[in-house]
Amino acid sequence: MFKKFIFALALALSSSASFAAPVFSECRQFFSKGQIPVIPHETELNTRALCYSSFAILHSAKSHTPIYVAEKLNRQTIIDAKGNERTNRFFADARLPRAERAELSDYKNSGYDRGHMAPAGNMATPEAMAQSFSLANMVPQAPENNRKTWASIENATRKYAMRARGDIYVLTGPVFEARPTTIGENKVWVPKYLFKLVYDPSENKRWAYWVENIDDTKAGKPITYEELVKRTGIQFFTERM
């Protein structure tokens, strides 16, 4: 049922343009053991690997959104983030060519929030906070979903990071339908689902939150890593855990 979404994404993103496979050479620390997720039809995806001070993004030129965002969290980063003032200064990321990126005008009067994939509430420094408002880190998100259900998932992840014995790794992203709804002149794709994968190496635990991108969705019981791979087709870890 679910695999059609990620495979549809891969086919939709295919084009004659040639892009290098993501290497994240300057920010592999946000991936457990430096493992970069393996996505179906990787060589066909029009993507760019973007490094920020506190997270990494694999960005799509056709959806104008992330495919996934990677973070490394721990007790200290969450403590530091609590005292960091939220800026709310959204911006189109100038590192992306204009044809590949979302613009502020795309979200205006769209009926959707600019939904963070790497949350502002995780950002431990002013620089990281400012960077988190890049539209490269956003997806069109149903407002009540963003402000209530998804916010509760983000809070649950921070609470876990606070009590974890060491670093945890978090991968967050959208999943699209074969013919996604779009917003704005740049036709930014609206996700059908959102996921957040959490991995705690110290406990060898991994689980994922999965929610539909609608206002009245509820945060259900987390799904297993294996179920997330089945639904998305993405191998998030290339080594056995």
From TrEMBL:
Its cofactor is Mg(2+). It comes from the Bacteria. Residues 51-240 form the DNA/RNA non-specific endonuclease/pyrophosphatase/phosphodiesterase domain. InterPro entries: DNA/RNA_endonuclease_AS, DNA/RNA_non-sp_Endonuclease_sf, Endo_G_ENPP1-like_dom, ENPP1-3/EXOG-like_nuc-like, His-Me_finger_sf, Non-specific_endonuclease. One of its GO terms (molecular function) is endonuclease activity. Residues 52-240 form the ENPP1-3/EXOG-like endonuclease/phosphodiesterase domain. It is an enzyme of class 3 (hydrolase). Its EC number is 3.1.30.-. The keyword Nuclease applies. Keywords: Endonuclease, Hydrolase, Magnesium, Metal-binding, Nuclease, Signal. SMART domains: Endonuclease_NS, NUC. It holds the Pfam family Endonuclease_NS. Residues 1-20 form the signal peptide. Gene3D superfamilies: Extracellular Endonuclease, subunit A (3.40.570.10). Belongs to the DNA/RNA non-specific endonuclease family. This is Endonuclease.
